[in-house]
Amino acid sequence: MGISNFPASLQPIIQQGFLEREFEQALRSRLGYRMVADRESFAVGIGETLTKTRAGLKPSVTTPLAASTNTNLDNGLTPQGWGVEQYTVTLNFYAATQDLNMVTSRVGIASQFLQNASTNGEQAARSLDELARNALFAPYFGGNTRVLTTLGTTGPTIAVDDVRGFTTIYVNGVQTAVSASYPLEVTVGSSVYSLISVTPDLNSTSSTPGGLSGQLTFASDVVVSDGTAGNPVIAATASKIIRPSGLLTTSALQAGNTLTMSVLLDAVASLRQNAVPEIDGAYNCYLDPVSARQLFSDPDFRQLFQGATSNNPVFRQGMVNDFLGLRFVTTTEAIVQPLTNSGGLAIRRPIICGKGALIEADFAGIGAEDVAPKDALVNIIDSVAMVTREPIDRLQQIIAQSWYWIGGFCAPSDTTTTPIVVPTATNANFKRAVMIEHIG
User: Fold this and answer.
1) 115 and 225 share a domain?
2) 412 near 87, Cβ under 8 Å?
3) Cα–Cα distance measured from residue 61 to residue 345, given in angstroms and rounded to the nearest whole number
4) Entry pTM
5) How confident is the model over 26-75, as pLDDT tens digits?
6) 32 with 120, same domain?
7) DSSP codes, 291-349
């Protein structure tokens, strides 16, 4: 399709590149969760799902080699191997379109043509940001839940609010379903049990965003004192979730459990415990404006910058410097969960990310010539394709303006970084981000 097929009134706009620049500006105008993703190209012709393998490390050697064993061909050494772990990213197709009728929109057509492009760009940016957010948060909710219904008597099965993070266990770096052969250690209340089976509910009643309620079955009976409604249920491989006052469940949050500098520093310490690399010298903290406002009301934070002048970038730009090890990124796409009968209060969830917390796979074939010929009006902006179709209806009046993206997001695990390799590391499957829950 050539530009010559478009109405003469639109040809100058298209030829001068106004449409492409308008779309590009809108697409890049939003900052959010997609910023933290490492970009990778998903090659053509390898299917819809890509499984990547990450090599682990070998444990430190602190015992000297005895001279008496330094013999034979092996010199007394036992060969060691390094572990591996796998993570999977799946391609999906996302698209939207908008029509412009040349006749009914005759007045001011140029501005509406450009406005459609701008609106499409904003929609694409926001859509990809939400996809990145969902892919980032899902694994970091995993392994953290609570008992829904108090046990009537001692028994092996309990009902929980969210079964994510309990269904699989890593075996030699590969995700394997939890079973009697591959149990998962789970703390219920104050005791540890071996999980051997997970049954999700057909109709989820979970109160956690994206959660899936269900039943957990253990190898031994759970006592009633542990299986009481509201008690925490935490997997040995659960991701770190920090709440004010050391609360163990989301339902335990109350008014007054606000965001503080102490909670943020605990999150930074957790990331550094796991040797998570920083992003250009600091960790990114994604939060909504209310969470940010609470921080500036925190007494510890205010005391830290007491006497600061108006030129201090912390207050002038609303961002924390490298002294705290954090870089704030406020976003309107943050997960906010309103509480019923609370006078407008909500559960807010800032998340602090290190390098590699999220991976974005962009399909390499989006701009291929057989998909987008040289004379077609298809522009690739930040891995998103903008398509403008000529009028092909009977009256040659309707132009279609569309966008599409082929790709996927995933949060890679770090199961090979264990206390054996890094003494301060935790056993969490996902270590490169820390979620914070508070009321606001």
Assistant:
1) no
2) yes
3) 52
4) 0.82
5) 554 445 888 888 888 777 655 567 676 666 666 767 677 777 777 777 77
6) yes
7) HHHHHHH-HHHHHHTTT--TT-HHHHSS---TTTTEEEEE-TTS-EEEPTTSSS-EEE-
